[in-house]
Design a protein that fits this description.
Elements (H helix, E strand, L loop, with lengths): L35 H10 L3 E5 L3 H9 L4 E4 L3 H4 L11 H13 L5 E5 L9 H15 L3 E5 L5 H9 L4 E6 L5 H4 L9 H17 L3 E5 L3 H10 L4 E4 L7 E4 L1 H4 L17 H18 L11
Parallel strand pairs: 1-2, 1-8, 2-3, 3-4, 4-5, 5-6, 6-7, 7-8
The chain binds 3-methyl-2-oxobutanoic acid (KIV).
Function: Catalyzes the reversible reaction in which hydroxymethyl group from 5,10-methylenetetrahydrofolate is transferred onto alpha-ketoisovalerate to form ketopantoate.
Subunit structure: Homodecamer; pentamer of dimers.
Cofactor: Mg(2+)
């Protein structure tokens, strides 16, 4: 029996209601997926929330169980999962496959997928075609794209068509070659005004949230206060409505140096490496498999 065959009295009360009354976003919405309305309600009541990237069903399931309300299938998959140097080579086929896995691995989180470089800049029509693919084939609840004023017309068309859009301003990694690296954005009067215009433009265009990446903390806090939609900071200080980290950075899986704004909450690379070394040593010594791991 599906929900439409239930009487109003039998239907689950929370199917459409936002998690605004007496509930929290973190771990609070348990019998349905988090929606963009829940995020809007969280901004109104001043509740901060966390977003993590995810690129596969297994890891996404762990974060879903932990109560992380929004999971981003970032095109950071390029450098954090697929072995590229930047996000630039990531394709729609790859994003669709990874996003579908994250949706399959979760029950509760709102899954947002990045539109990769080259999949939306050509025209709003191209953006809609690819956003629709991520929603229809992978089942994501929203898409994210980079750019402020330059992407406003595209955001407008997607939103009009029923696609929830998370915008991304400040440092936009898909422009790494044009920017000559990953410099902090919004420093100085001109750059600060540009960032504020970008943030206003995406809100005006209908984005439900905006990522602020690598922006001075004071400027990000000011932008957050001036917007009605939630800001999601990464390297943007504590004054944002939400914070996002790339999961491999957050959990200590990343090899080598991590950016200044990353806090590592675990040393998964060390733990996994130790487990692999111990397994190999026991195989070499004949200690594995023991009798309890063998069939009679
Ligand atoms: O691709 C990504 O992971 C992102 C986040 C860093 C915001 O865009």
């Amino acid at each position: 029996m599906n929900a439409s065959s239930l009487s109003a009295a039998q239907a689950p009360a929370t199917t459409t209601a936002p998690a605004s009354q007496g509930s929290t976003l973190y771990g609070g919405v348990t019998n349905r997926r988090v929606t963009v309305r829940d995020l809007a309600a969280a901004k109104q009541r001043g509740e901060r929330w966390a977003m993590l990237t995810a690129y596969d069903a297994l890891t996404a399931g762990v974060f879903d169980e932990a109560g992380i309300p929004v999971l981003l299938v970032g095109d950071s998959a390029g450098n954090c999962h697929l072995g590229y140097e930047t996000t630039v080579p990531v394709t729609m086929d790859q994003m669709t496959m990874l996003s579908a896995a994250v949706v399959r691995g979760t029950e509760r989180a709102l899954v947002v997928a990045d539109l990769p470089f080259g999949s939306y800049q050509e025209s709003p029509a191209q953006a809609l075609r690819n956003a629709a693919r991520l929603m229809k084939e992978a089942g994501v609840g929203a898409v994210k794209l980079e750019g402020g004023e330059r992407s406003a017309r595209t955001i407008e068309l997607l939103v009009e068509a029923g696609v929830p859009v998370m915008a991304h301003v400040g440092l936009t990694p898909q422009s790494v070659h044009a920017l000559g690296g990953y410099p902090v954005q919004g420093r100085g009067d001109e750059a600060s005004h540009k960032l504020q215009r970008d943030a206003k433009a995406v809100q005006q265009a209908g984005a439900f949230a905006v990522v602020l990446e690598a922006v001075p903390a004071e400027l990000a806090a000011h932008v957050t206060e001036s917007l009605t939609i939630p800001t999601v900071g990464i390297g943007a200080g504590v004054g944002c409505d939400a914070q996002v980290l790339v999961w491999t950075d957050m959990a200590g899986m990343t090899a080598g140096r991590v950016p200044k704004f990353v806090k590592q909450y675990a040393n998964l690379r060390g733990v996994l490496g130790d487990a692999a070394r111990e397994f190999a040593a026991e195989v070499r010594d004949g200690a594995f498999p023991a009798a309890e791991h063998s069939f009679t």
